[in-house]
Amino acid sequence: EVQLVESGGGLVQPGGSLRLSCAASGFTFSSSAMSWVRQAPGKGLEWVSSIYSYISNTYYADSVKGRFTISTDNAKNTLYLQMNSLKSEDTAVYYCAKEIGALSHYGMDYWGKGTQVTVSP
Q: How far is 119 from 121, CA to CA, in rounded Å?
């Protein structure tokens, strides 16, 4: 079955960096589009970034543009989110999700359990 397992979260100071990973299995990762979505305490889900590897397109929310970088390692079936210049407002549970479509956004059909990122002085 499809599995998505996030890792790499933790406590970091403002201005610091963190790299999240999402290990994927149960589907053809190299031809799939993937996304990161986060949920801050007491808030709803916020889309962060997506990567459409088949067409080499990446997308970022305005709140993280220029600070975060999404990437994949197809040999390892792993999705990454490099987070730099972290702010307190980046504090959230970060989820990786498989996009339904490979070329454009229609929604997500599988989600990981999430990894906690806490940005605090």
A: 7
pLDDT tens digits for range 90-113: 999 999 999 999 999 999 999 999
Q: Are the beta carbons of 70 and 57 closer than 8 angstroms?
A: no
Sign of the C-alpha dihedral, residues 98, 73, 118, 69? negative
> Degrees (nearest 5) of the Cα angle 58, 101, 33?
40
The residues, any chain, with a CB within 8 Å of residue 46's CB and separated by 6 or more, are: 37, 38, 39, 40, 61, 63, 92
Spatial CB neighbours of 33, under 8 Å, sequence gap ≥ 6: 50, 51, 52, 53, 54, 98, 99, 101, 102, 103, 105
Report which of 69, 91, 90 is spatially closest to residue 80, judged by C-alpha positions: 69
- Contact present, 116 and 7 (Cβ < 8 Å): no
What are 39-52's pLDDT values in tens digits? Answer: 999 999 999 999 99
